[in-house]
Amino acid sequence: MANLESVHRRSIEQRDEFWQGEAKRVHWETPFEQVLDFTNPPFARWFVGGKTNLCYNAVDRWLDAGADEAALIWVSTEVDERKTYSRRELFDEVNATAAMLRAQGVGPGDRVLIYMPMIPSAVFAMLACARLGAIHSVVFGGFASVNLASRIDDAKPKVIFSADAGSRAGKVTPYKPLLDKAIELCEHPPQSVIIHDRGLHAFEPVAGRDVDYDGLRRAYWGQTVPVQWMESSDPSYVLYTSGTTGKPKGVQRDTGGYAVALASSMDYIFGGKAGETFLCTSDIGWVVGHSYIVYGPLIAGMATILYEGTPVRPDGGILWQLVQDYKVTVMFSAPTAIRVLKKQDPALLKKYDLSSLRALYMAGEPLDEPTAVWISEGLGKPIIDNYWQTETGWPILAAQPGIEPRPTKFGSPSFPVYGFDVRVIDEQTGQDLGANQKGVVAIVPPLPPGAMSTVWGDDTRFVDTYFSSVPGRQVYSTFDWGLVDGDGYWFILGRTDDVINVAGHRLGTREIEESVNSHAAVAESAVVGVADSLKGQVAVAFAVLKQPEAYESDDAKSALEREVMKVVDSQLGAVARPSRILFVNALPKTRSGKVLRRAIVAVCEGRDPGDLTTIEDPSTLQQLKETL
Ligand code: ATP
Ligand code: MG
């Protein structure tokens, strides 16, 4: 068995040879002439001259290996429906959708914006774009009109693919009025809008612009659309970052590098095998959904589950039921989803047959130790924390059991992934730091295959945003703090703008949060640094309780506040103790489940919270204000 460090070293030092080997995992219609062109740093072009297609690799290529095997499994607990598409059926659907898009004038390089709930036609649309060489831009379904309008103006799509409505926790969200409003607001309206009418919410089509998906599907059923072979560096999609720290950035992804990176990650990191089933609980509107609901599993010949619903409806056992029903071997979720489950009956974890499941992967935000321990003990399966960003497209740090199985450590996303020359550096000097020293997590370019090629339409912003933050050294900054312990395990300590400076002590908000969360009554928390005339900054904690009804009275609340402070004192020292611990029903989060710290800080300091377009529930901020 290979050794992790030696594989990683080879991927950096014998880069061309390493990726030449990995590239064999996908189909190349025309072989590439050069593995990497890095003559114009920091822009990297992978597999130069090679021609391939994401749709071909995800769909067509697997037909001969078993056309009747499952490819896409749709489960909706919102509309109470389940449907399994075989590889052949997926092929037919994707071709019909490609034919309808082609008839709308969509061709190579054109953008198609996809504003859809978690339903199969959304996946058909993504794959159909890939088939045509068109660039998709999936916008999280249910985003407000302003978000949508700014993304329309940035991507300038020829066609928008949408639906009448989505549904969440049994509540219908009409999409059509949001979309109409967005098109009204934007400066670059699309030529046409294809609407999948699910019959959830009645609407009036706009004459001359809106077309009906079902009608088109019938009209184009049975047509086969030839695959458009794309040069490896041609963009496959544009996806906006989550907007946790500010204005979202349009991440541009290539074609060939992405296909190779995903194919290799399915083997080395996820250990998924053709014919098995993958369950990823993310949304197609996020990068995790792009890479590990749609492209990754399909490129690896796996069936993938598209789940429309929440983790707690009809009850907190639904995800485990899916694992049982579809014999899921690999599952991918986010800490935010597991924290929700923590509030449910733990017996639900034991109710289903989970013998098929090998491991649960988690990413998107720090996986705190109490949550990790809870789920790992509950499932009795390995929990694999992995760290990455919309920008990188696939994990930067992860356990890689497909290369060499190693024990994991709670709170650590393990080790650098091959291809990523990742370092912890001093933000002032740009120097590499040693073991146990905190610094910025940075990647020495070139970024590996699959990572972003540039900011859509703005090369300057790409260089300025990501490669210009450290004086004198052109490295890609993740804008996250990290450290490597004496055993080589990596830890992510929070975002670079989440460090608090209390009377000259630099404290990571994440460490304080972990400490607050370790109190048995706390489900989750957010710690922020608030300006203070005496100390510069003080830490303020907002905590959500597992059983708020047990702490209704003011006395109970202040007793608990003192208890939690004592926990922080004993774990991190009095300097890290939050000046206040306030109890709220929910934290303000982005739609992707990340805590909006900048907005919390602004509210605490009595300032305007700024851009709130990506917030999930504005009433959480209101409640926070009232608690203060
Ligand atoms: P924006 O860049 O628009 O502010 P965002 O950074 O939240 O939004 P994403 O690309 O979805 O957008 O999230 C990537 C970030 O999520 C990482 O930079 C890191 O801060 C955090 N993250 C992801 N996975 C992990 C993990 N396993 N452990 C700790 N943090 C993680
Ligand atoms: Mg980010």
From TrEMBL:
GO MF annotation terms: propionate-CoA ligase activity
Statement: the UniProt record of this protein carries the keyword Ligase: yes
EC number: 6.2.1.17
Claim: Ligase is one of the keywords in the record: yes
PROSITE patterns noted in UniProt: AMP_BINDING
Domain (AMP-dependent synthetase/ligase) ranges: 61-443
Stretches assigned to the Acetyl-coenzyme A synthetase N-terminal domain: 5-58
One Pfam family per UniProt: AMP-binding_C
Keywords: Ligase
Family: Belongs to the ATP-dependent AMP-binding enzyme family.
Name this protein carries in UniProt: Propionate--CoA ligase
Native species: Orrella daihaiensis
